[in-house]
């Protein structure tokens, strides 16, 4: 029992920023690998979601790549290239670009978005395997408090 208590005491002294960074990178890598196995990318899925009036888009209006980059700024990664992603989705017939450079989701794109979204619960299930919902909620609440403690905002 002493060994476990010592390990917990040691963990309690480790920097949260280190572990949140490691967790973030591992979770993103895992999620993107699963999506790639299924034939799509996370940024591509985000494009469909942000252009769909049935998802994130407030009005279903087309958007330019810079507008989409601004809309996704809190979760885009530096390696994400929305222009390239849009080109791939356009080749698949999921997006079209109008004369003003605005991207619009097509009917086929909306069908793809709905289909791709169906994979999210399975990915979440793998990530949450062996973690009780109550423990997960506690972890999130702890992270939210750390954010507030450091002057950040929790939405």
Would you mind describing this structure in some detail?
Strands 1-2 form a two-stranded antiparallel ribbon. It is mainly alpha-helical. Helices cover 62% and strands 4% of the residues.
The total strand number stands at 2
The percent range for helix content is 55-70%
- Main beta sheet: strand number and arrangement? 2 strands, antiparallel
Report the order of strands and helices.
HHHHHEEHHH
How is the secondary structure organized here?
Blueprint: H1 2-12, H2 16-37, H3 42-51, H4 65-71, H5 82-91, E1 95-97, E2 103-105, H6 107-117, H7 120-127, H8 133-149
Antiparallel strand pairs: 1-2
Provide a short characterization of the protein structure.
With 155 residues, the chain is mainly α. It has helices at 2-12, 16-37, 42-51, 65-71, 82-91, 107-117, 120-127, 133-149, and strands at 95-97, 103-105.
